[in-house]
Amino acid sequence: MTPTQLRSLRLPVMVAPMFLVSGPDMVIAAARSGVIGAFPTPNCRTTEELDTWMARIKAETKDAPGLWAVNLVTHRTNSRLADDLELVAKYQPPIVITALGSPAPAIETVHRYGGIVLADVVNVALGRKAAAAGADGLVAVSSGAGGHTGQVSPFAFISSLREMFEGIICVGGAISDGMGVAGAVAAGADLVYMGTRFLAAKESLAVPDYKAMVVGAETHDIVVSDVVTGTPASWLKPSLDANGYDINGEAQKTERNYGGSDLGKRWKDVWAAGQGVGAVKTSEPLSAIVDQIELDFRAAQTRLAGY
Ligand SMILES: Cc1cc2nc3c(=O)[nH]c(=O)nc-3n(C[C@H](O)[C@H](O)[C@H](O)COP(=O)(O)O)c2cc1C
């Protein structure tokens, strides 16, 4: 997929991969709605489960080819990376997103079948490294994002990446409606990464109480803290309070470990969301959310044309 091909999508949007939230129903619904769906491979407890998920997604997105992605953790502690890459070679997802490490381990496998690799980065220095490693695109996770967040303004981030990179630039971070999507594109992005806006979608794997908290939350309910995982992440404060976390307390001292540990348990009990949470007013089918984003995106295009 090239920046030009991205322009032929219904909307330049990817439903961002979310730990314990994105599953096959979400990815398939996204592709059928004309946007890109994605899931992180650690959402499958075993390689066998990942095999089943990818087989189903590939079969059920046949009519929307090119519109699904997997997110691989390339951090050295991920002991499953080699197995996950074998399945990537088998099912050939058109887009592979690497996170928490260099894109290098995925590039050869993905390029061999004609796919593209996007590297998730949280600052310009990491963007430069990922570009040098051969990534086809960069995902600029900016301030306000849900989960492990960046701290850089999306406008500054896109401008700096554009100066040194000609590939695909995807930007995420509190972009929760079609006006925001249009703004990001106007600022120079090719694609927009939207997680929080889809947290309460019917197809999301989030439990009902999590969805209800997202629907009821406003921007001021979001806090960034390293107290849960040792890395700054954006959480729903009421869920931190309910689990006894003190955001002014000591950061988790355990070594970062993305290959297992009790990290999953922590994400299961404490709920992540980004500053764009106020845009989520109800739990509805993913296709309805995309319809609304498109209406707002078109209105924003008209508004821009008036200047
Ligand atoms: C609940 C939740 C879980 C997430 N899990 C992951 C993950 O497993 N891997 C990853 O690369 N990013 C993860 N993210 C970050 C998203 O992929 C994306 O960067 C972010 O949602 C974009 O910002 P937004 O939430 O403001 O739209 C997660 C985000 C949320 C809200």
In short:
GO terms for molecular function: dioxygenase activity; nitronate monooxygenase activity. The protein is of the alpha/beta class and 307 residues long. It folds into two domains: 9-202 and 282-305, Aldolase class I (TIM Barrel, Alpha-Beta Barrel), CATH 3.20.20.70; 208-269, no CATH class.
Structure in words:
The chain is globular. The longest helix is centred in the last third of the chain and has 20 residues, at 286-305. The protein has helices at residues 3-6, 24-32, 47-60, 81-91, 104-112, 124-132, 154-164, 178-186, 208-216, 237-242, 263-269, 286-305, and strands at residues 13-15, 36-40, 68-73, 95-99, 116-121, 137-141, 147-148, 168-172, 191-194, 222-225, 233-236. By secondary structure, it is an alpha/beta fold. 38% of the residues lie in helices and 16% in strands. The protein contains twelve helices and eleven strands. Helix 4 (81-91) packs parallel to helix 5 (104-112). The protein starts with a helix and ends with a helix. The chain has an eight-stranded parallel barrel, surrounded by six helices. The protein folds into two domains: 9-202 and 282-305, Aldolase class I (TIM Barrel), CATH 3.20.20.70; 208-269, no CATH class. A hairpin with a 7-residue loop joins strand 10 (222-225) and strand 11 (233-236). Flavin mononucleotide is lined by residues 16-19, 21, 40, 71, 99, 120, 141, 144-147, 172-175, 193-196, 272-274, 276.
